[in-house]
Amino acid sequence: MSSGPLYLGFDLSTQQLKAIVVSSDLKVVSEAKVDFDADFGAKYDISKGVRVNEDDGEVFAPVAMWLEALDLVLQRLKENKCPVQDIRGISGSCQQHGSVFWSADGGSALKKLDAGKTLVEQLTIAFSYEFGPNWQDHSTQAECDLFDAHLGSKQKLAEATGSSAHHRFTGTQIMRMRRRRPEVYAKTARISLVSSFLASLLLGEIAPIDIGDVTGMNLWDIRKDSWHESLLQLTAGGEDGIPELRKKLGDVRMDGGGTMGSISSYFVEKYGFNPECQIVPFTGDNPATILALPLRPLDAIVSLGTSSTFLMITPTYLPDPSYHFMNHPANPGHYMFMLCYKNGGLAREKVRDRLPKPSGSDPWAKFNKAVLETPPLDIKTETDKAKLGLYFPMPEIVPNIKAGTWRYTSKSDGSDLQEKAENEDDWPPDTDARIIVESQALSMRLRSQNLVTSPKDALPAQPRRIYLVGGGSLNPAIARVMGDVLGGVDGVYKLDVGGNACALGGAYKAVWALERGENESFDALIGKRWTEEGAIQKVDDGFKDGTFQKYGGVVGAFEDMEKRILEVAHN
Ligand SMILES: Nc1ncnc2c1ncn2[C@@H]1O[C@H](COP(=O)(O)OP(=O)(O)O)[C@@H](O)[C@H]1O
Ligand SMILES: O=C(CO)[C@@H](O)[C@H](O)COP(=O)(O)O
Question: What region holds the Carbohydrate kinase FGGY N-terminal domain (predicted)?
Fold first, then answer.
């Protein structure tokens, strides 16, 4: 084991709190995790990490559960014999957009934490609202309509903030809180994102919001690098409310590196952290994912967590209402392109659970067999039509379609698109296994096609490498389909830490933040220390001549299918 300083990265995502510890040379030293359902499911009455109020479309998590999870994950790190005293810096990644509402007592409660008690015992009084709205929340359509109209159009809002209005974005959530629960809004002294909330616990004071994660709020003017005055006014309900809202939001930390201060004495006394251990700005889980490896332009990351996301980096700011642009969390002037799908892991699980239960220990065995035994688009003979589907157990983000399942067919060139009649029986549940994964990948291909170019030798435009991260990256059948549909001329890779990539990105951020030389960029420092060996594994060839073009033939039909469904949904 390395004897130098260590760095801890957290990931507080939808279903788990993960922790990963690395050395200065980026070797993984220790890991631990808390699984919200397994550890706290009954106690907090949650499922898949959240509670749902179907009537209003609210999705939220108990803040107390996150407090308990932090104590528990640190206890587990200690039990795993992690040399906690050698940890020099801590950063992390957290589910984006979610918010935590602090009461007037929050700041002082954080300052006087007693190591003889637990966080949850002492911090219940610290919040004006006991829940954190979750990114799956879709209760804010009225607020989204106001945000989209406020600057003139969705396009104008996207130009200003990197995204058009989205249910989960924190600006619309805060606005709804003010209108729906005015007493909570009035009692709120500070509002944190989940990332700055977790950083605050460790810092022992309320931490500023981070420059990457702030771009998931619809409130940050990306070009001007400041809060967007007019959107603050909308959120606050008028000009008079702006100063109060600014106070609640606090300042934004512009530097993703450096330190915000030393760790709270609570963690020193309770878990044996070094009092000199520094708390580095935390960011969102997607911004942290792009820090988990030296990503180059034309490389893409597909994150297969509870949500599915597709990420690329670019120095060019090209906002559009159909996707997100966010600030790169470490490189000023660079951006993260993101597509985010609500119907990711849980939608695939629903299709999996309609298949007979496998007899062995791998719950995905039957699903994977079905995926691999079904040919692309389920075209077995020249006369077969291509099968296309949308599988949305929850209302989707891209496109903004209500919950439902739709099955269509088209000719292999995309013509003759038709909805499948309910009573046709040549589409068994086995076929859905391949079609849902293809559908998720086709949506990514459709929406990222303007960002990719031919990587070499006049090959079709496509990503150079595709990196898979998140829980689903462990699945070889999903990796195959991602490569079939999206290409990736240099192949499809998974990170060795699999589901822990965002926590790893957080840990790397801490290394860079505290060891960077003057003006040394994240890419320069991590690029020097990172080696492929032991970090990534090739899991699919990616681009397959012929197969890639087959999917190209139906991308247009896929888009038309979405449009038809959208038209019906909005009429
Ligand atoms: N072998 C597997 N094949 C496919 N999906 C998997 C596999 N293992 C885990 N998953 C999926 O990973 C999801 C959790 O991913 P993870 O990245 O840990 O989630 P989050 O960060 O959102 O809490 C689960 O919903 C599950 O569907
Ligand atoms: O809403 C988004 C991104 O915009 C989600 O990607 C969340 O950030 C949650 O991520 P996971 O829990 O699925 O990792």
Answer: 135-291
